[in-house]
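Protein Entry — a single chain follows
Next Lines — sequence and tokenised fold
***
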Amino acid sequence: MPRINEDDPSYPHGEEDGITSDHLEIGTFESRNAVTDKPELKLVGRDGNAFAILGLAMRAARGAGWTKERIAEFRTEATAGDYNNLLRVVQEHFNVY
């Protein structure tokens, strides 16, 4: 799968590019500057691998406007244990569906 470069001018950034909240699967937010404390995270039908779950959560956190420090704290807590710990921490920080 090719890597997404969000700095690429052809990358869609919002409603002005025809992207609405109906198209977002990893998190929804009011604007690019609004911070969502508990963003939505779709895991149903996704790869259940721990690295895949962590990657989806990190992408949703960035999309929700979390600071780098908050994302680092989440990552540290999520990776401080086993797979069950990862799932518990993800569910504490995200609205998982």
